[in-house]
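User: Predict the structure for this protein chain, please.
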Amino acid sequence: MIKAIIFDFDGVILNSANIKTEAFRELFAGYPDKVGEIVRYHVLNGGISRYVKFRHIYEEILKKKFSKENEVELGRRFSEIALKKVLHASFVPGAKQFLDKNKGLFSFFIASGTPEKELKKIVQKRHLQDYFKELHGSPAKKEDIIADIMERHSLTRDEVVYVGDAESDRIAAEKANVKFIHLINDLTGLDEILKKADKKREAFRILLVYANKMMENLIPINISSLSAVLKKAGFDVRLFDTTYYNTEKKTTAEVRVENLQLRSFDLSKYGIRYKETDVYQDFRNVVREYKPGIIGLSAVEDTYNLGISLLRKIKDLRIPTIAGGVHTVISPEEVIKEDSVDMVCTGEGEDSFVNLCEKIKSGKNYTDTRGIWFKKDGRIIKNPPEKLADINKLPFLDFTVYEKERFYRPMQGKVYRMLPVEISRGCPFACTYCAAPRLKEIYKPLGSYYRKKKIKNVINEIKFYQDRYGLNYVYFTSETFLFLSDAEFNEFVSLYKEIKLPFWFQTRPETITEKRIKMLEGINCDRMTVGIESGNEEIRKNILNRKISNNSIIKAFEILKKSSIPVSVNNIIGIPDETRKEVFDTINLNRAVKADSISVFIFTPYRGTRLRQRCLDKGYILPEAYSGDHTKRSILNMPSMSQEEIRGLLRTFPLYTRFEKEFYPSIQKAEKLDEEGNKEFKRLSKIFSERFFQ
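Assistant: Here is the predicted structure, written as structure tokens:
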């Protein structure tokens, strides 16, 4: 449905095109042998900024050097010649009537080649300013103006038309990927043209499904990026998000608060509450009411079963389904076997999913779409992979598909209006507990999996989110933020000074330098998280593939201690073949670094990781096993530590790290998951909270 009309001005709103032609003739009357060629050039290149034309006329027709002084003087004289006549020009037939009739039904904008200051003066003098939401002129290019209007007003290409009278206008519309309506000095038929255009543009509806862990309020990059590219391509997009449904016994945050890893917080005053309705019935109702042309599920391994159970509930409605996300990319053979899944996306979806939807919408054969596997006649069509996305060319993330409450997220007891910003995609390292090395292998034929955004693009993106969504805290999603080069980091610090919103990132100890930390202090870095993972050097080096010594880690934290930036530490316990003694190596290293807050997670053997294969080889897990919740329990059955012992160490880890060693006998009692142990843990937790969380 068309919501916005962007007009050229001369020859579209006012009969001023001929006035501009005569102005060029008068301006260059001193070159009688060239004036005919100059006027022809102007007419053939209508819609282009006069300053671009001046340069071309001087350099290509008159064969003269073009200076800044020439530009200023020609601009001044041209305005003197044309402006008075334009102020008295008649309306293009049908233009005023169309504006009067449709004011309020559409949003009107101007994208003209006329200098913006002059354009605004003309519009004001003609008392037209109330018709138009915005007025834009040169030096900005028309295609950039159109794209900017769409970005700032969250308009899709199917919701916008550009009305112009010149070939340059058509090219601008094509570059901006919007429909162009070519009308020369007559707008009387525009109403009918728009009606026909709307009939042709009945939107293809796409329902995205985000299977999320209960109450995990951080907005995902992948869904937001997919929605943005789909809307830019003209599709109607809706999201079914499971975040606020009661799908588990306890949230991850609740468990971490109980285990003394997070300060308590209350999101209810921000309107964040559990939905009282059934997630499956609500999903079915949404599908029946929205009638999507395709349903796209995004899920990680932790939430894959939830996502599949949703798709099974609407299998009888016979709507095509596609699964994507990291779990699907790593295990496409497994996912495509699922009866409720018709297709799988085997890579990044920004290009392949848009191409798929374009083909389905147009009625073309779509089973040859790159990056997608299909079921057909009892066989699986495995198409070659699609190229990796150029993250510097993607539109800004679309957050309009989420409920407004999703913007709020706690950070160590405080709640912020927080949004994620992707500064890089992928990871340059090869930790064995992470899927990044496998993804790197999968994408190797297509180029570098690890990509970085240009810093200027990142800054512009943040500014847009500030203006559009009221962002007041930035959450950088880079796997290793400080892996930026010196030039990139210096540029980031220089440009972020304009923004200075508090921000969080995660990084590795070996990327920390005193110089960089001091620079971060000056631009409102609010908190960072540093991964230690294990305090045992042999485990870290030979099992986790993190080759850094304890001494180097301690030195990095000595730098951080001198700064005002609070630091959180990530740790893993229950690593394959890890012993109780080796867990205490991690506890002791945490005692040495004295971070502001401590996070400890149970090792999870995700598909695609090298450590999962180690677990399979040793019989610690079954091949069909899905990852457990890394805040609740281990799924490994190994001789070095029991699942119960790992759970006991998980909840007492902060106590061992922060309390004096005289408390150790009491803490050991609190490890036991029985009545006596629970009572002791409750007593020690009260002391801990009073000492460290006040």
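The two ends are 54 Å apart (CA to CA).
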